[in-house]
Amino acid sequence: MDRELTRELEFARTAARRSAAVCQQIQSELVGAAEKAGREPVTIADYASQTLIGKALLEQFPDDAVLSEERAVDYETVLSDHQRALVQRYISQAVGESVTHAQICAWLDAGKQQQSTRTWAIDPIDGTAGFLGHRHYCVAVGLMIDFVPAVGVLASPGFHSDEEDRPSAEHGALTYATQGGGAFLEPLAGGEPRALHVSATSDPSRAVILTSYESSHVDLGFIERLMETLGRGPDAPYFRLDSQDKHAMLASGQGDINFRVSNEASYREKVWDHAAGYVIVTEAGGQVSDAEGRPLDFSQGARLSSNQGILMTNGHLHAALLDAIQRSR
Ligand code: AMP
Ligand code: MG
Questions:
Q1: pLDDT digits (tens, 9 = 90+) for 58-99
Q2: Is residue 46 annotated as part of the catalytic site, yes or no?
Q3: Fewer beta carbons within 10 angstroms: which end of the chain, N or C?
Q4: What's the half-sphere exposure (Cβ side, CA atoms, 13 Å) at 236?
Q5: 23: how many CB neighbours lie within 10 A of its CB?
Q6: Which pTM was predicted?
Q7: d(CA 249, CA 151)
């Protein structure tokens, strides 16, 4: 096997970029009338993004298995005719020829029935609320080999170095990593990559903590208790943002800790919400476990059923955080 994973990385970079471009187009054309459109634009973009990645996967890696968020059966039964027509239009435009309903369904379900030691983990839009709110969202493409994340790419149109800024077209990053090959960030529009390294911060009372923007995705009460346990004042840095852009921020040293426990006790994290980001964080020197300190087990299907919560740190802070999490329960 090519452990350099050059072809896989190039594939993932191109696929994530192309899908992100279509998401950006849909966002600019459909989200403007957000009040009226409701969640429709994100539905269109979600399906369009996964369709494009599935098409490319079938062409380049037809034997690989795929875990991806959307399903053709929902596309056929849940979407309206109008929504399907829009998806079809965007896909036809993106691939440069008119595509059929049957093709879209086949591409959406690409790899779902395959058995393989290689599994792609795809989130066509991670951070759907961020997409609608013009905040953070990304297209996440990961590859697991023998249940270990080995390639990770995040195409993040809303990623920007200055967190005070609103995301805009000038911003956007492509972050990527391969196991053993390091982690990198380059402008989403193309340009020179730079190697990513986590921060050196070791004082948990001053560390930059990242967590979900969506209150329904994270137990904010627990985070508050954790802050107290860590002896953090009200002005200690704390950012809430959508999507695996949190993983990218941690990898680039713009954050020191990425922590989440769901406010639903039975919730188990989804593989496509972490596989790509996992490679980027670990290759940038970070440490990853669940909230109990267990390593993430990617062998359980679409969910991380053996794990609860997620803790990603720059490594220096990991032991202190696990201890504080324990004491905040
Ligand atoms: P974030 O942008 O960090 O809020 O994470 C987005 C991801 O949270 C989505 O892709 C969902 O898969 C996931 N999610 C959905 N519902 C929940 C929940 N109740 N608890 C935790 N995560 C959730
Ligand atoms: Mg997601």
A1: 999 999 999 999 999 999 999 999 999 999 999 999 999 999
A2: yes
A3: N
A4: 21
A5: 27
A6: 0.96
A7: 18
